[in-house]
Amino acid sequence: MIDRLRKFVPVLDWGRTYDGAAFSNDLVAAVIVTIMLIPQSLAYALLAGLPPEAGIYASIVPIILYAIFGTSRALAVGPVAVVSLLTASAVGQVAEQGTAGYVVAALTLALLSGGFLLTLGILRLGFLANFLSHPVIAGFITASGILIACSQLKHVLGVDAGGHTLPEMLGSLAAHLGETNPITLAIGTAAIAFLFWARKGLKPSLRNMGLGPKVSDLITKAGPIAAVVATTLVAWYFSLNERGLSIVGEVPQSLPPLTMPGLEPDLIAALAVPAVLISIIGFVESVSVAQTFAAKKRQRIDPDQELIGLGAANIGAAFTGGYPVTGGFSRSVVNFDAGAETPAAGAYTAVGLAIAAVALTPLIYFLPKATLAATIIVAVLSLVDLSILKKTWNYSKSDFSAVAATILLTLLLGVEIGVATGVAISVLMHLYKTSRPHVAEIGLVPGTQHFRNINRYKVETDPSVLMLRVDESLYFANARFLENLILVRVTEGCGIRNVVLMFSAVNAVDYSALESLEALNDRLRDMGVGFHLSEVKGPVMDRLKTAHLLQHLNGRVFLSQYAAWTALADRPSEPHEPVMADEMC
Amino acid sequence: MIDRLRKFVPVLDWGRTYDGAAFSNDLVAAVIVTIMLIPQSLAYALLAGLPPEAGIYASIVPIILYAIFGTSRALAVGPVAVVSLLTASAVGQVAEQGTAGYVVAALTLALLSGGFLLTLGILRLGFLANFLSHPVIAGFITASGILIACSQLKHVLGVDAGGHTLPEMLGSLAAHLGETNPITLAIGTAAIAFLFWARKGLKPSLRNMGLGPKVSDLITKAGPIAAVVATTLVAWYFSLNERGLSIVGEVPQSLPPLTMPGLEPDLIAALAVPAVLISIIGFVESVSVAQTFAAKKRQRIDPDQELIGLGAANIGAAFTGGYPVTGGFSRSVVNFDAGAETPAAGAYTAVGLAIAAVALTPLIYFLPKATLAATIIVAVLSLVDLSILKKTWNYSKSDFSAVAATILLTLLLGVEIGVATGVAISVLMHLYKTSRPHVAEIGLVPGTQHFRNINRYKVETDPSVLMLRVDESLYFANARFLENLILVRVTEGCGIRNVVLMFSAVNAVDYSALESLEALNDRLRDMGVGFHLSEVKGPVMDRLKTAHLLQHLNGRVFLSQYAAWTALADRPSEPHEPVMADEMC
């Protein structure tokens, strides 16, 4: 009972061995992470089209719930770039930005997403995330990075542009280019330039100054904080908000409020599909990050339990003024590098952010939105990696077509269509390939008991024995294809008296394929040709034994291909009317 | 050039060798088939909700076009039961039965279906039909048979009922039961009883009377004709139409008219999905029938060319007053049994039906609709075969779930949802199974060079060499699963110094799986464990050579598992820090 509970509430497990050393490590990590997360949370709220405090709120209760139910010890849960973009796209379709309805719809989206993740987790359906292939994920992240960066250009220019696809965004930006505010542009470009330099140039300089690698790294990561502080001071000192600079303005000084997501059936219906998409993409991103860190510390991640942890976090976000969250790479890196040992570090971060929400919000009144946009742009451009196109092109055209379609359609038609098409193409390509499997005619590699393709190796063969290795599981999509292929080979070959199908690569035989094998058996019997199987695997044999095929098999099942060769080669089989086969020649 | 033309127009091929003997055989077959087809064509038009002559028209031009473009020498193309039901269901959603719009919509459906088939054929996409698994087809045909029989009960009762699903039909019949016309019921039940007897009892009696099997068979098949003639005479003699019996009534005496399908965008949009469904189901039925007969005569069917033949036939139907057609089993059986040798028999049948359409239609004025309904009911009940449920239950629960869902949903929610769900379940089940593949730890079968599962066979092993046979192609859906599984096995095993993955069952490695293998290679190197592959197939090896994995492989690629065993077993590999692996124990 306790063990079972511990499985579903991992905190009961690691909590027992929590000691002073772990506590102090976690606390130090939490202080660092809190400082880093403040600008990031504000920026992602801006990206999602929500008031800045929503980003802070979405980082408090979700972190605590994930610390209780999640399995990763390094994962930091909260708003992330891609999910914020998806939120803006989904909520923008049901409400106007800046309205109360928009905020409520974001809560509903978090609730639906949390409910979906929790359901998948309880049903142990985490494997579904595997249907997002690596190239599709890579393509999607790259395209999203481009979209996100473009969506933030309006804040850097200080204009009021919109759009959810690349052509829409660029068109809207071009239309409003004349309204560019020079002060906003100056602040924004300065921030971008500084942040790029902090990423590329600062760290080597610090190392040259004799600082250790870890400290240099943390200072480098504090770049956004420096940009926020500096531009806020400039904006305040020169009252730049009176000259057209958009600033964050008043943010309520409050702990996360208790909020109620909208539950109208229309709203739920409109947000259901985006919620499923956000859940799956968020889950895939989160699990990838968690597994990366778990591998470094030789810990294990349980994907199904991760679903429960993320589900709880999102439901928490829905009731405390947040919006959809997931485990993010950049915040987890900070957490890990700062030395976090247990999920408790996350909980302390939550306390830190809560203090910030109550005490520090007046300080960000003059924070320019252009600075936040700059931090987003610099962060997401590191996600853009078009090399996946080249890599997949070299390796496999079908993987390439999936990634290319995902990138193009995400940019041109939006994130939802892009990723859905990518998944559909991956699945269809896989089905297509398995529907016309490779079938090799094989012979004995001389001096061994090993059989290989006669077209690739110098092998021994016997014209009276046709030995075929079917390189695919037999199932409905290829059953008829194989039946035809084998019949054609047999009718074209001269003097074939036995056919041996080597089943070493046949991992399953479904009912359609069973019927095809039975039909094949009957036809070969009519033609006076023996029909044998070899190297049938245990699970396949178990299944075939429940059917009639083996009883009526016009031949034998051999343990190995070599046993079949020894029994059949160089000796004619019993002459059951071999006339037909001869006539064909 | 000529050869290429011959490929697309098979008549140019068989037409060259056409002689007098084939002509007389074909002519005899055509006369018999014409007589058989008249009641069948009228009945299926009734089932499709169309005027009776549409069934005749749909059997004339389509037969000729198929004879020119199709590859089967025995297939008879025309209206069939399942496609007629699908037509009624699709067209019923856009127009009212009995209106001109209904007839035009049926023409449009035939045009769309023909265009779709033709496109698939030109693009050589015939393999798509393979995604309808045998169990799904069997379930769909069975459920359709039940639905069709129920849909005809209203004609036997003489009431005005409706509905497209089983509950709707039964509910509507129950509501109208009080209006039953006793004369219609008497004619209908008498016809059903006679036709059942003709199927089961007549043939043995004829054989007992000393008639040959072929003649007995043909006389038995003429049962519907006898029923049609007898009930028509009774209806005419007693003027039963004045007492509430529904009769066919006036049918225009005409050759197939030139008709124009409706081309309104709304109509096309509404009928596009049903047209795709009708095309695929019709194609699958037709190819199955054609292959059955081709096998008997050792001829070959080209599925892609069949698509072109059926596409042309449907387009022909659209412009000559017909509705969607395909190759039917019952009409092809008649054709085959009557001795048809070439597709020319079909053309002569078309001439026969054209004569019937011009000359014989006045004779069927008094033909009771109840008789036509009876011929349909008796014909389709032979399609109902629930044994597929038991067979798939015994063999494979996932096949069973696909067939059960197809039957239930077809009956309860209609043919389109039923078959779509069946296909979706088949595909998802397949993906699910391949996403968690069977991985066997293997050892050497003593005295051989053959390796089998250590849990099933008594085999030799070496604790320092973990040999795993992965029973599935590696692709995105199982890449991460395998990566985890192998790492867990390695970290749990004691003193493992080498891992050999036997790739005999790995038929493909996509880009996601390649990345997983690279990650696995890196992790095993970090742990000081060698990583080897064996029995990599030619096509997989070709692909892997384009990537970096093989250059960086922390081990070797062996031709056979036995070669790997000889090289690695009983000898420790180079001790690249084997500390980690030991610590885990």
Automatic annotation (TrEMBL), chains A, B:
Gene Ontology, cellular component aspect: membrane
TM region positions: 101-123, 135-154, 174-197, 218-238, 267-295, 307-325, 345-365, 372-389, 401-428
PROSITE patterns, per the entry: STAS
Gene3D superfamilies from the UniProt entry: STAS domain
Pfam family, one: STAS
Presence of the UniProt keyword ATP-binding in the record: no
Topology in membrane: Multi-pass membrane protein
Ranges where the STAS domain occurs: 455-554
Keywords: Membrane, Transmembrane, Transmembrane helix
Transmembrane helix among keywords: yes
UniProt cross-references to CDD domains, sorted A to Z: STAS_SulP_like_sulfate_transporter
A biological-process GO annotation: transmembrane transport
Domain of life: Bacteria
Compartments, record wording: Membrane
PANTHER family recorded: SULFATE TRANSPORTER
NCBIfam families cross-referenced by the UniProt entry: sulP (TIGR00815)
Protein name: Sulfate:proton symporter
Organism: Methyloceanibacter methanicus
